[in-house]
């Protein structure tokens, strides 16, 4: 569990590094953009994959009870959520699951509500399937984002589905029990289905706690989880939906089967089981390292670039940075980061128009890499 080790990922078919030239026009940037980590995965996961590799046949998979039990065990031990009354549905990714949810539980022209600024595929998946996007913009109060409840209640009356992101990407909020219950109650009163993307659930920093919204009310809720972020397994394309409502189960399962997206892959199945049953100690150590990285980023900007405001990061490994005091356009911000600082960050407008003037920085990397990147950013902004 030495998270300071630098591992060369170039040439490994890694999107974060190998797509730099295509996306940024340069391939010698420090990549702090794509939301995966530059850390080796937990030893129990590596061992499980090595063991699976010893069997030389990789045919069609049957996940079986061991897979479901691992998911249920994790939710119970980490979040005290009993999922025994719900069905576990395997999917290749949570965005595949979102597309299936939209296609089966809404029709073209239906309204779907999101809370911006938010993960770009929430926007695109809704639009690509000919649904109408409603936005409940989170309110930035001194850097911390809050829910605009009057707007939420007004918009939810027009919606068929509400896509919740908790913990929230990119603003770092971990919604409280009170906030989740209020959202749940409002959706229930208006018969709105909740799709809850909880992919960052395991990466929450004390004193904050992740609460699955379905543990408050399970009816008409689709909970989407995955070890992809917390155990750095995005490339193994394995996610899970936890659903209690029989009507939703039937419709989602039917399309999941007909699209042949239900079977998973040989390594993703074994990795998930190993993550959720034998890798908790690794995760706890990772969170301490990430928390220290988060605090380092916040302290660095406060000391060296005080015009840059970092939203309180209650969860995820993503820093949401406000550069608006510099009065730069988004193109100018990108040029400074790319051409002067030599780093790749995500531009804020990707997350919605209310992300203009912001950038997202991924701090899930060895501390020495993070230090170098931040010093480059400082130098890039010195003349401003």
CATH topology of the largest domain: Aspartate Aminotransferase, domain 2
Query: What is the rounded distance between the termini?
Result: 40 Å
What sequence of helices (H) and strands (E) makes up the elements?
A: HHEHHEHEHEEEHEHEEEHHHEEHEEEH
Task: Specify the CATH homologous superfamily of the largest domain.
Answer: Type I PLP-dependent aspartate aminotransferase-like (Major domain)
Residue ranges: pLDDT <50 for 5 or more in a row? Answer: none
Shape: globular
DSSP helical segment count: 13
Assign the CATH class of the largest domain: Alpha Beta
Largest sheet: 7 strands, mixed
Question: Going across the major beta sheet, what is the strand order?
Answer: 2-10-9-8-7-3-4
Question: Helicity level, as a percent range?
Answer: 40-55%
Tell me the fraction of residues in β-strands, as a range: 5-15%
């Amino acid at each position: 569990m030495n998270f300071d080790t630098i591992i060369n990922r170039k040439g490994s078919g890694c999107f974060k590094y190998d797509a730099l030239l295509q996306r940024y026009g340069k391939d010698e940037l420090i990549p702090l953009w794509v939301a995966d980590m530059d850390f080796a995965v937990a030893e129990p996961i590596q061992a499980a994959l090595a063991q699976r590799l010893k069997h030389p046949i990789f045919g069609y998979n049957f996940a079986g009870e061991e897979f479901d039990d691992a998911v249920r065990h994790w939710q119970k031990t980490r979040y005290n959520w009993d999922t025994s009354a719900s069905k576990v549905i395997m999917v290749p990714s949570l965005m595949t699951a979102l597309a299936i949810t939209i296609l089966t539980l809404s029709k073209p022209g239906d309204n779907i509500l999101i809370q911006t600024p938010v993960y770009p595929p929430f926007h695109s998946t809704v639009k690509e399937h000919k649904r109408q996007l409603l936005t409940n913009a989170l309110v930035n109060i001194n850097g911390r984002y809050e829910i605009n409840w009057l707007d939420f209640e007004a918009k939810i009356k027009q919606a068929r589905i509400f896509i919740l992101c908790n913990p929230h990407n990119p603003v770092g909020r971990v919604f409280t029990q009170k906030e989740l219950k209020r959202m749940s109650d409002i959706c229930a009163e208006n018969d709105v289905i909740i799709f809850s993307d909880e992919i960052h659930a395991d990466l929450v920093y004390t004193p904050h706690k992740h609460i699955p919204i379905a543990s408050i009310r399970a009816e008409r809720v689709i909970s989407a989880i995955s070890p992809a972020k917390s155990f750095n397994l995005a490339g193994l394309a394995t996610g899970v939906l936890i659903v209690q409502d029989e009507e939703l189960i039937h419709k989602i399962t039917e399309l999941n089967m007909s699209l042949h997206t239900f079977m998973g892959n040989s390594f993703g199945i074994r990795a998930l089981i190993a993550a959720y049953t034998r890798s908790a100690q690794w995760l706890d150590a990772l969170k301490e390292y990430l928390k220290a990285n988060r605090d380092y980023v916040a302290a660095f900007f406060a000391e060296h670039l005080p015009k840059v405001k970092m939203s309180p990061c209650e969860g995820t490994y993503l820093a949401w940075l406000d550069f608006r005091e510099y009065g730069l356009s988004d193109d100018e911000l990108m040029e400074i980061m790319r051409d002067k600082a030599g780093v790749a960050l995500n531009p804020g407008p990707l997350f919605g128009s209310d992300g203009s003037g912001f950038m997202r920085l991924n701090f899930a990397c060895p501390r020495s890499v993070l230090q170098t990147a931040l010093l480059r950013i400082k130098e890039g902004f010195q003349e401003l």
